[in-house]
Automatic annotation (TrEMBL):
A Gene Ontology cellular-component term: protein-DNA complex
Pfam family, one: HTH_1
Assigned protein family: Belongs to the LysR transcriptional regulatory family.
Segments forming domain HTH lysR-type: 1-58
A GO MF label: DNA binding
Superkingdom of origin organism: Bacteria
Protein name: Transcriptional regulator, LysR family
CDD domains named among the record's database cross-references: PBP2_LTTR_substrate
Keyword vocabulary terms for this entry: DNA-binding, Transcription, Transcription regulation
Gene3D superfamilies documented for this protein: 3.40.190.290, Winged helix-like DNA-binding domain superfamily/Winged helix DNA-binding domain (1.10.10.10)
Length: 299
């Protein structure tokens, strides 16, 4: 049972309507509905009667609402006490950044964290997705941003999705006509600026071609986005690039984009499962929850 389940339960009970409860909680109506369903399944009782006029508490729901309010008040007091103590939290928060710090809202994160946890020292370290995973395990990082959805879930790592990025096939500007006319088989025949095996874009590209029984032609391997970008602009070959990065380069006439299809890659924040109750991790997750406007805690 999660705190947000109880908050949604009480909000729906008070409002008598899913949409109004969602507005009160600043989350989506489907999220509130999912919270109520999950709570009913866990408790084994029906909390509401669904009617055309709205949500009406059942007899069981009426009894449990009073207990839920009491429990939530106790938990809220716990948070208030923690709030009074949080300025005493000391130590170092080491965060891995897998892409441009601006895209990761690093300045906003630091502003929130330094206000609420002024005695923590903050280290922001540029790392690849696989380096984030490795350094979490070895204690070199407390948390980190990583690409998810391509790499298989890691049982010792907790990660929560923050954002979806569109990914596009791009190539040298002078190949624009050939690129635009190509299908996936044609794209595979072009020379490619490939990535190292420890790269989420490599996993995405391999999966994309493998699903189509194709094998791309690798001209060169680069292990950093800046190097890949330079090689594409200079005419070496094609590669995958986030749309937010590719569009400005296309407008400047530096690259050509294949517009037939977009791929997707997820941005996640991750930390070591064994450290879930660590006060520094809890502080970091609080900051992530705030700046990314998450509907549910990152746990």
């Amino acid at each position: 049972m999660e705190l947000y389940h109880l908050r949604s339960f009480i909000a729906v009970a008070n409002e008598g309507h899913l949409t109004r409860a969602a507005q009160q909680l600043y989350i989506s109506q489907p999220a509130v509905s999912a919270h109520i369903k999950a709570l009913e399944e866990e408790l084994g009782v029906t909390l509401f009667a669904r009617t055309p006029q709205g949500m009406i508490l059942t007899n069981e729901g009426t009894v449990l609402k009073a207990q839920a309010e009491k429990s939530l008040n106790t938990i809220n007091e716990l948070f208030r006490q923690a709030k009074r103590l949080q300025h005493d939290l000391t130590g170092t928060a080491k965060i891995g950044l897998n892409i441009d710090p601006d895209l990761l809202k690093t300045a906003e994160f630091f502003s929130v964290m330094s206000t609420n946890y002024p005695l923590l020292e903050y280290h922001f370290l540029q790392r690849s997705t696989w380096e984030v995973v490795d350094e979490l395990r070895h204690g070199a990082l407390d948390g980190g941003y990583m690409y998810g959805g391509i790499i298989a879930p890691q049982p010792d790592i907790v990660s929560c999705k923050l954002h979806n990025y569109n990914v596009m096939v791009v190539g040298p500007a002078r190949w624009k006509e050939q690129i635009e006319a190509a299908d996936w088989e044609g794209l595979a025949a072009f020379p490619w600026v490939w990535t190292s095996k420890l790269c989420a874009f490599c996993d995405l590209a391999l999966k994309t071609f493998h699903d189509r029984n194709l094998k791309p032609s690798k001209a060169v391997i680069a292990d950093h986005e800046a190097a890949m970008r330079t090689l594409v602009i200079s005419g070496v070959g094609l590669t995958l690039m986030r749309e937010d990065e590719a569009r400005p380069l296309e407008q400047e006439g530096k690259i050509a984009i294949w517009h037939n299809e977009k791929l997707e890659i997820e941005l996640h924040f991750a930390y070591l499962r064994a450290r879930q109750e660590d006060p520094v991790i809890q502080a970091i997750l609080n900051g992530i929850f705030i700046i990314w406007n998450l509907q549910e805690p990152c746990m």
